[in-house]
Write a structure and sequence with these properties.
Porin, alpha+beta, Copper resistance protein B, Cu-R_B_prcur, copper ion binding, signal
Length: about 350
């Protein structure tokens, strides 16, 4: 009887032991997650207090306490926040003014120059090497980059001139030299011609002071002395330099001690065929403001000499050439030449050399 009662009690308790308790476990987990999600922000890890972030990324201490209080009290609820008391609608944005354009020309710099930028010596190297030593070094740099004094003698033309239609063979020289800097220099010019193997017929020398008036032109002034055919002095004023299209030009006006006013223009261009072979067209014009009978010169355009020279530059300092030139006297000057039995125009073959040192 007792055995039967025990078996019956065991069979009645078995269904209760097999009952599903998974729902209870799910409810506990859900409650735990809700508790974690509703923890205030102040319970989260404070990286600023632990020194994990730089100070500029952390809010001030007072703001941090206020934030914690707002989170704890639920004041961050946007629905409960009363924006009408904040005066957002009353704010006058027109009083703010336009922000300045820092990219506009002449705009003030973003930040002022720090005071330490203007401290110390004018040249920072003076603090290490000494002012005297660096002054000498800066002077040497200036001298090497255009401030040095140099001198050159250029023989532009030294040539024999052979007429193609008879007449006397002649020779000619045209040279100039200078000494000075890139702004101011002393210039010496000389030009003349004569019979080949005979006497000099025309010769002159000029002493000029040359001053740069731009990157490509110099203003020149000085005196000119005619040695042949008769001694005569002149005041000189002119310009010399490199014109557009790479033409080297020399324009000068002369006022003689007898009141005669004349002018001369020379232009030449170097056309490189190769690095050493150079073709040079050249033209020379002479003008007179009045008749000069003793020199066989009439008023107006008195002479024109266009020519072409082909030179071979063995070295930059030495280049022989051959060429041809047409020489013509014009106007009243041509009439005076014909009256004296001379040819007013003609071609000439040229053999010469160009050099400098």
């Amino acid at each position: 009887m007792r055995l039967a009662l025990l078996l019956g009690a065991a069979l009645w308790a078995y269904p209760l032991a097999a009952q599903d308790h998974s729902a209870h476990e799910s409810t506990d987990q859900t409650n735990s997650m809700e508790q974690v999600q509703t923890e205030p922000a102040s319970a989260a890890m404070d990286h600023c207090a632990m020194g994990h972030l730089p100070p500029e990324q952390c809010p001030p201490e007072e703001e941090a306490h206020d934030l914690d209080a707002m989170v704890d009290s639920g004041a961050m609820d946007p629905d409960a926040m009363d924006h009408s008391q904040m005066g957002h609608d009353e704010m006058d944005h027109s009083q703010h003014g336009a922000q300045p354009d820092k990219s506009a020309p002449g705009a003030a710099p973003e930040e002022a120059v720090p005071p330490r930028a203007t401290e110390g010596p004018l040249h920072a190297a003076d603090a290490f090497w000494g002012e005297a030593a660096m002054a000498a070094a800066r002077e040497e740099v200036r001298r090497m980059h255009g401030g040095m004094t140099t001198g050159t003698i250029m023989v532009e033309r030294l040539e024999a001139r052979i007429p193609t239609e008879g007449g006397e063979d002649g020779w000619l020289w045209d040279l100039q030299g200078f000494y000075g800097g890139d702004i101011d220099k002393f210039v010496l010019k000389s030009e003349g011609e004569g019979e080949l193997g005979g006497a000099v017929e025309d010769a002159e020398i000029q002493a000029l002071w040359s001053h740069a008036i731009g990157p490509f032109f110099d203003l020149q002034g000085g005196v000119r002395l005619d040695i042949e055919p008769e001694t005569r002095s002149h005041l000189v004023l002119g310009v010399q330099g490199l014109s557009p299209y790479m033409w080297e030009v020399d324009l000068a006006a002369f006022l003689s001690d007898r009141g005669d006013l004349t002018a001369r223009f020379e232009g030449e261009y170097d056309q490189r065929i190769t690095q050493k072979l150079i073709l040079q067209p050249r033209i020379e014009l002479e003008l007179a403001a009045q008749d000069i009978p003793e020199r066989g010169i009439g008023a107006g355009l008195t002479k024109i000499e266009p020519g072409l020279r082909l030179r071979y530059q063995f070295v930059p300092e030495f280049a022989p050439y051959v060429g041809v030139e047409y020489e013509a006297k014009l106007g009243e000057t041509a009439d005076i030449a014909r009256a004296e039995g001379e040819d007013a125009a003609g071609w000439k073959i040229l053999f010469g050399v160009r050099a400098w040192f």
